[in-house]
Amino acid sequence: MRRIGGFVLVAALASGGPWSAVAFAQGTAPQESWFNKLTFSGYVTASYTYAVHHADGAIVGRLYDRFHDQIEMNAASIAVEKAVATDKWDAGARVDLLFGQDAPTVQSAGLNLGTNGDLIQAFATVNIPAGNGNYVQFKAGKMVTLMGLEVIQDVLNPNLSEGNQFIYFENFTNTGLRMDAKVSPVVDVELALIGGWDVVADNNTKKSFMGRLGLTLTPRASVALLGYLGNEKAAVGGVTPSGNRYGGEFLVTQKTGSRGMLYLQGDYGQEKDLPAAGSTAKWWAAGVWATYDVTPKVTVALRGDYADDRDGVRTSGLFGFPANTGQTFGGGTLTLNVKAWQGALIRPEIRYDRSSLPVFNGAADPKKDQVSFALGVSYLF
Hints:
Elements: H1 7-15, H2 17-25, E1 38-51, E2 70-82, E3 90-99, H3 103-106, E4 117-131, E5 134-144, H4 164-168, E6 173-184, E7 187-194, E8 208-218, E9 221-230, E10 245-256, E11 260-272, E12 280-295, E13 298-309, E14 327-338, E15 344-355, E16 369-380
Antiparallel strand pairs: 1-2, 1-16, 2-3, 3-4, 4-5, 5-6, 6-7, 7-8, 8-9, 9-10, 10-11, 11-12, 12-13, 13-14, 14-15, 15-16
């Protein structure tokens, strides 16, 4: 899951319009409306973050929580889906809309809904049953990435803020074609042909590829292996510069006891002809998440990550980081997830960030580290 006017028309279609009245008068049961096959879900998130070190009101290196000492209207999101049955020939679709201050940070080039709106997903699916609970699905449109543990919808992540791997070493969305296959009870495969990382209108003449293999090792443990390859440079004068981006990722999930979960993610990537022609930029990152259900309504989440952007190509000039030729950075995050009220999620959080460069607190008095405190309030429906 990565997740609104024409209401009079929709209501008429949902009820079957005047034909429903005719059918009722004739004693004939009306056919089920297409509207009744749809499911609706969504969430609203607002937050406040205070950073001990900040750069003129901006929190360096952050995504959704990038504003210091401000109450943010982060997200109002809704998803509409016609689910696809996996045990028969079937078809469906899904649309995810996102509005608020989170939207500009994840917009793909070539498609958005204005400054503070985005179409996160819009895709159609057809399902082919393969027997014994297995299936093959083909999807077309815009979809969230296959990469990583964390996702665009903040309410689905263990922590309130987003980790460095999600921000700097993964793409947010793919637009193109994808095949999802459940091969056996323990193996699933995804293959995607896309226009590129975070683009809807392809910016060059090349296509990119991404593939993922999922293995359920035991009822308590699983591992996913992912690889990607493609040219992500923008064409100049109709000519695509040389140099592919390629790399891989692994994600391990382990249930610990009856209340805990442990996640381990590693990323590695390279891109040829960056930062200059004839050279190859390299980067890698690792992260660990641990969650524990103190009670059915209170969960503690801890995240630690470390990243090596040795050539500066993934962070230079992005999200408040100054232009740089390379840095290592990381941090630790502690979040309390409180679900004491039905539908509500309250999340206080404390986070520490550190870099090998003095990139925090602005140019006048740069620091190598920063501490921030945050509170997020969400309602899910």
